[in-house]
Amino acid sequence: MPLEDFDSPAEWRQDLDRRWPERLAIQDRLVAEVSAAVDQCGDSISVLELGTGDGSLALRLRSNRPAINLTAVDRNAVLCDYGRGRDEAIQWLCRDLTEPWRDELSGPFQIVYSLQTLHDLGGRDVLAQTYARVADALGAGGVFVHADFVEPMPHDDPAKPRRFAPDVHVELFSDVGLAATLVERRDLLGCFVATKT
Ligand SMILES: C[S@@+](CC[C@H](N)C(=O)[O-])C[C@H]1O[C@@H](n2cnc3c(N)ncnc32)[C@H](O)[C@@H]1O
Hints:
Rossmann fold, globular, alpha/beta, binds S-adenosylmethionine, 7 strands, single chain, 7-stranded mixed beta sheet, 6 helices
């Protein structure tokens, strides 16, 4: 199944899970970190997901912690409509994260999280810009749980790499006032917890 075939969102996500089996452990870690952060902050807090895909992660988090106010952003209209059909209590926003999305969202958010999405945005500059937008969207002491590739791939364009080693991420986080730790790594994927200092 092509990676950009969104006609059947559930099958598309299952295909991601088959291609990168390490997603499952990384996803479990991300859910555990977000849930722990919710427990620290209190229930009715604002949480933002970037790049929601078929919405499975958002639904899982809402079933764990039903009182959170969750906003879910993805650029793909099919996926956003699909997510909306699964849980109308989540605010589904169809937006391109390379555009200035921050001003459209009220915030501040206590927690932002993202799974295997930000490498798609186009490279180091836009990743740095996105980290800056996340830092701006977070309230004081807010937490960004970010899971994505932590190793360059052989077919990446060397002139415009999109996947970076953990130390690059930590430096980019630090540049925007986020103190980050890689809390788990499985094969190509890693999960960072970054706190707004
Ligand atoms: C590999 S999928 C991961 C989906 C989901 N987070 C998961 O792990 O199941 C990447 C997601 O990012 C979204 N995406 C890619 N580029 C984007 C952009 N520029 N703005 C918003 N969403 C984007 C895609 O539509 C897709 O849903």
